[in-house]
Specification:
The chain is α+β, with helices and mostly antiparallel strands.
């Protein structure tokens, strides 16, 4: 159940002011949410409202001890938890969550499978607990200062309530460099609850504790390789089924790639097996001139007998000058259009294929499989594996062996594949960031690496775990602002599926010249042959360029007015040179330059919105 959570707390029991109470109520009573519920205790006001497309529900649970739990999201293992806790079958998900917390503490939240976030008021300890699922799909933000805590599912709420306008320097640097900033937000002092963590706020402090971690020391081994295929198909079926259960209309992205096509084909199979009781299925595909994906997504539509919606990306660009979200984000025009169309057909679920590439082994260079044989002491097997990968990559065998020996004998982790490493040497790495931002990022990076669970993974598996860790930490799976009021979800991020794929042998997942080896075998009867055998993958480089070149031209016309330069984030000469090269199609570290352009126009629109808000408030006064 998609809900909005928000609240305010004085940990010293001071009464909640009339102004703060009005803020929380205004946050709950918006056009996209209904059925607001409130909980009050001395110094505490917390609320919850469900999305307007949802049926009324009890997502604010209050037991006899005056504790409270508000819940946002979907609980996948409800039946198992009811048996475990002994709670009645008709109890709310928030009741189950609070019961687990009261019985096991923060560790009990690990048992909650699904996409969710929650807020718990622990009355006995006068403590607020904010937590998010292992992938951080349902957002939750907070600010704590001078004994007062604000929280909300909506970043704009917390920023507006606190009046914070100062930007977080580490966020700025991290976003400009790599496009994400872990648990930080653009606003200094406002943070996102980290995926798989609980933030416990009391008068004694604000410890942040993980209740889930990567299964770095777990391994699954079957004697028969067919068992891996059967288990993968069963888990994938479950991943789709729990996300479309009890829905009347389900929407799904369909790019024609293996990930999105698998989801649509499985959803279609499930609805047909339901004998007319299954949900309607609406697909959304994105096309452009000479789109290589079109023949593949049309084939899925034909096989599943679907009439999909095709959006022209020229009409919904990757970036636009009129960004409206609380944080810089790609594809805002397309996401807003998806939200509009979903509302028109009454759909509350949107399925994506995100994380599929990484989890399903869509790689041509997993040479760490050589390392696994070396660590096991099977040197002949390691040599054979190295020879297979060298042939597949078109590189000499010696670099492959050297990388594997180095990884097996030290804590070193290969950053990129051999082929990518050669390309990186030739390409520009200029980022234009000022020295102060680099220094702040270096300190933050040391802190992140020191706490990273993937560092404890065995050699040969570290890079895989690191890649998953960085995706989760970046919160790239989080519901975008335009679709936060619907169940925006990713079957390939289903936690049992992810844990399974991370703990089986890498050589089963893919092999030299065999990306997605296990997936192709397991899904052979699910996917159309044309899609199953697809080797290509469409790139959106030209789409990004088409959206960003006009914006780059705007910046070049008045370089003295570039906000990121005026604020001291970026060096002006370096940026101007790179923008010139970008508009002429020359090497300029384009992927990172995109982040600067996106952030620049977010800054400009933020300034316009602040001026408009100030003018409106003055007019009221």
């Amino acid at each position: 159940m998609v809900s909005k959570l928000c609240g305010v707390c004085h940990l010293d029991s001071r009464p909640v002011s009339y102004e703060d109470a009005a803020r929380v109520r205004a946050g709950l009573n918006t056009p996209t949410y209904v059925g607001a519920q409130e909980y009050r205790e001395p110094g505490v006001l917390m609320g919850c409202a469900v999305a307007s497309h949802s049926a009324p529900t009890r997502d604010l649970y209050q037991p006899a001890d005056r504790s409270c739990c508000s819940w946002d999201g979907r609980l996948d293992n409800r039946k198992e938890l009811l048996l475990q806790t002994g709670l009645p079958a008709d109890c709310a998900d928030s009741t189950i969550a609070l019961g687990l917390y009261q019985h096991k503490g923060v560790d009990g939240l690990r048992d909650l499978m699904g996409d969710w976030s929650l807020c718990i008021w622990d009355a006995n300890r006068r403590t607020v607990v904010l937590a998010s699922d292992y992938a951080g799909i349902r957002p939750l933000y907070y600010h704590w200062s001078a004994g007062k805590l604000y929280w909300s599912s909506c970043l704009a709420d917390v920023a507006g309530w606190t009046g914070i306008t100062e930007l977080d320097q580490v966020y700025v640097g991290s976003f400009l460099l790599r496009g994400s900033a872990s648990a930080r937000t653009p606003f200094a002092g406002i943070f996102a609850v980290p995926p798989g963590h609980a933030v416990r706020i009391s008068k004694d402090g604000m410890p942040i504790r993980a209740f889930w971690s990567l299964p770095v020391h777990q391994e699954i081994r079957y004697r028969n390789e067919r068992c891996y295929e059967e288990q993968l198909l069963d888990l994938f079926r479950e991943a789709v089924e729990v996300r479309i259960r009890n829905e009347t209309t389900v929407c799904a992205e369909l790019s024609g790639g293996l990930d999105s096509s698998s989801i649509v084909c499985m959803a279609d199979r499930l609805r047909k097996e339901a004998s007319g009781r299954g949900p309607d299925l609406q697909t959304f595909s994105y096309t452009h001139e000479n789109c290589p994906d079109e023949r593949y997504f049309r084939e899925v539509e034909r096989v599943c007998d679907l009439s999909g919606c095709h959006l022209e990306l020229q009409s919904y660009p990757a970036a636009a000058a009129d960004q409206a979200s609380s944080n810089p984000a790609w594809w805002e025009p397309r996401l807003r259009e998806l939200a509009r169309r979903m509302a028109a057909i009454g759909s509350a679920v949107f399925l994506t294929g995100q994380l599929g590439d990484l989890i399903m082994g869509n790689t041509t260079a997993d040479t760490e499989q050589v390392t696994e044989w070396l660590v096991a002491g099977k040197f002949w097997k390691a040599g054979q594996e190295a020879y297979g990968w060298a042939r597949s990559l078109g590189v000499p065998i010696y670099p492959v062996l050297w990388r594997s020996i180095r990884e097996a004998c030290s804590s070193w982790v290969p950053p990129v594949s051999p082929r990518d490493a050669v390309a990186a040497i030739r390409a520009s790495t200029e980022d234009s960031l000022c020295e102060a931002l680099h220094r702040g990022l270096a300190w933050d990076e040391r802190q992140r690496l020191a706490d990273a669970a993937w560092r404890h993974a065995p050699p040969g598996r570290r890079r895989r775990f690191r890649a998953v860790h960085e995706v989760l930490e970046s919160r790239s799976l989080q519901a975008p602002e335009a679709l936060q009021h619907v169940c925006y979800t990713h079957p390939f991020a289903h936690r049992p599926l992810v844990e399974f794929m991370l703990t089986i042998p890498a050589r089963v997942v893919c092999g030299p010249g065999q990306p997605r080896r296990l997936m192709r075998r397991a899904f052979a009867a699910l996917l159309p042959p044309l899609v199953l055998n697809r080797k290509s993958k469409a790139a959106y480089t030209s789409i990004y360029r088409g959206a960003l070149i006009p914006l780059a031209g705007v910046l070049l016309k008045r370089p003295a007015q570039i906000e990121v330069v005026k604020r001291g984030y970026v060096e002006g000469k370096s940026l101007t040179s790179r923008l010139e090269r970008f508009t002429h199609g020359l090497d300029c570290n384009e992927s990172q330059l995109r982040q600067i352009i996106l952030f620049e126009f977010w800054l400009r629109n933020r300034a316009v919105r602040e001026e408009t808000t100030t003018a409106s408030e003055s007019a009221v006064l």
